């Protein structure tokens, strides 16, 4: 009795579903969120007092309007996150996903909402980054001839004095559409898989969280892996309660 026993039974059931998915091209789809990086030491967004959004308003920090309002403040937040992410390592959950993909080429699609690059660092191939990449930049507006000559002062976002353009992190902010091609690939993976693992996400952000419903409606089994309840639990076929760095190696290795 108790959740642990339930977890063992559920784990055996999910392993069966995984074995069935293995026989199919892209039979497995995995959607990850900030929780898979928690055990690497990267703060999540909505985890009570430790999450980023507990200290900032998403609209102020992860939106173009917020950036234009106070570029230095937002830029410094992203520089702080970059510094943190550069100094952490993928955890056993990231590695379990990468090793499974290496053992089953074309067997899985890894879709992430994370911008920290830790799946790539762990060796996962072809990661679909729905929300962009923290360590990359792009210009806010179209570049002029002088833009690339801009020399940022430390702690300041690169700024073009000729046209007033600003460099911004190459992430998807609230109110911005996801990269077209990447979203289309993720949607197709959700429609074609027989098993979707939804790992370490609160399921609060759309359209990313909608991929679980797309998979379910297409006939796949949906499994949520998370130590706490999520907004997607109600439509999952199975819930595995626990940290992903513990459960993913148990499930995938
Ligand atoms: C768009 C990048 C339209 C930047 C991010 C009302 C209803 C529904 C939707 C909306 C609405 N109003 C507005 C919207 C749309 C909005 C949205 O969904 N808002 C929500 C908040 C209500 N979405 C958008 O704006 C998207 N764009 O809709 O565009 C459009 C269409 C066409 C043309 C123009 C426009 C863009 C969304 C992308 C925003 N960018 N980040 C950055 O990172 O700085 S969002 C941010 O949230 C991150 O990307 C993050 O990945 C994402 C989701 O959060 P999670 O990953 O789930 O993290 P969270 O902290 O929430 O949860 C962590 C989980 O981990 C928890 O469950 C916890 O229990 C678990 N956990 C903890 N420890 C562990 C663990 N799990 C496993 N193991 C552990 N050890």
UniProtKB/TrEMBL annotation:
Binding residue positions for Zn(2+): 144, 147, 160, 163
Transmembrane segments: none
Residues noted as binding substrate in the record, renumbered to the chain: 78, 81
Localisation: Cytoplasm
Catalytic site: 131
Residue ranges of domain Deacetylase sirtuin-type in the record: 8-253
Keywords: Cytoplasm, Metal-binding, NAD, Transferase, Zinc
Entries under CDD domains matching the protein: SIRT5_Af1_CobB
Superkingdom of the organism of origin: Bacteria
InterPro entries, sorted: DHS-like_NAD/FAD-binding_dom (IPR029035), NAD-dep_sirtuin_deacylases (IPR050134), Sirtuin (IPR003000), Sirtuin_cat_small_dom_sf (IPR026591), Sirtuin_class_III (IPR027546), Ssirtuin_cat_dom (IPR026590)
Swiss-Prot/TrEMBL catalytic activity: N(6)-acetyl-L-lysyl-[protein] + NAD(+) + H2O = 2''-O-acetyl-ADP-D-ribose + nicotinamide + L-lysyl-[protein]; N(6)-succinyl-L-lysyl-[protein] + NAD(+) + H2O = 2''-O-succinyl-ADP-D-ribose + nicotinamide + L-lysyl-[protein]
Functional description taken from the UniProt entry: NAD-dependent lysine deacetylase and desuccinylase that specifically removes acetyl and succinyl groups on target proteins. Modulates the activities of several proteins which are inactive in their acylated form.
PANTHER family referenced in this protein's UniProt entry, alphabetically: NAD-DEPENDENT PROTEIN DEACYLASE (PTHR11085:SF4), NAD-DEPENDENT PROTEIN DEACYLASE SIRTUIN-5, MITOCHONDRIAL-RELATED (PTHR11085)
NCBIfam families: PRK00481.1-3
Domain writeup: 2 residues (Tyr-78 and Arg-81) present in a large hydrophobic pocket are probably involved in substrate specificity. They are important for desuccinylation activity, but dispensable for deacetylation activity.
Name of the protein this chain belongs to: NAD-dependent protein deacylase
Species, as recorded: Comamonas terrae
UniProt lineage: Bacteria, Pseudomonadati, Pseudomonadota, Betaproteobacteria, Burkholderiales
Gene assigned in the entry: cobB
